[in-house]
Amino acid sequence: MRIRKGDMMKIFVDTAKIDEIKEAESWGILDGVTTNPSLIKKAVESESEDISLDDHIEEILRTVEGPVSLEVGGISKEEMVSEAKILYEGFNDINNNVVVKIPINTATTENDDEFAGVKAIKTLSEDDIPVNCTLVMSPNQALMAAKAGAAYVSPFLGRIDDHIRKKINLRRGEDYPKGTYYPEELARKIREQKIYEMIMSGRVEEMIYKDHSIMKLFDWANDDGIFSGVDLVWSIKEIYDRYEFDTEIIAASIRTPRQVRLCAEMGVDIATLPFSVIEKMVIHFKTKEGMEGFTKDVIPEYRSILKG
Ligand code: E4P
Question: Which of 128, 154, 166, 247 is spaced 20 to 30 A from 145 at the CA atom?
Answer without folding.
Answer: 166
